[in-house]
Design goal:
Blueprint (H helix, E strand, L loop, with lengths): L1 H23 L11 H24 L4 H20 L8 H20 L6
Length: 117
């Protein structure tokens, strides 16, 4: 089960890396658009995260508050990406919002550590 947890964590991280890469590749572009990296990365990260929660539940008691926050942010990112997928461009504010949400979700994962008794 530990091996499965590590594989899912790895895939989850790759998903967020793809999403962030898809955003950062457009940083200097005038026109921003949802690209396949953003679509695939957000979907992969959310699905791998959900599967990871299932594995964590079987291994013990995960931090449900952290999982809830990460799920909510990830779901908002995925919905925004999918709704704007076919549009030729997206507003600068939406692009910055996606970038901030992505970085925020990564920050929650890194800095919201479990409490140690």
């Amino acid at each position: 089960m530990e091996t499965l947890r590590l594989v899912l964590l790895f895939v989850h991280i790759l998903g967020y890396a793809a999403l962030l890469g898809g955003l950062l590749v457009q940083l200097r572009s005038e026109q921003k658009a949802v690209n396949p990296l953003m679509r695939d990365g957000s979907g992969t990260a959310l699905l791998a995260g959900l599967l990871l929660v299932g594995v964590l539940e079987s291994l013990g008691s995960p931090d449900h508050a952290k999982i809830g926050v990460k799920f909510a942010i990830g779901l908002v990112i995925l919905v925004l990406v999918m709704v704007n997928l076919r549009k030729p461009s997206i507003p600068q504010g939406l692009y910055l919002g996606l970038l901030v949400l992505t970085v925020a979700n990564i920050a929650v994962a890194v800095f919201w550590s479990p409490t140690h008794a």
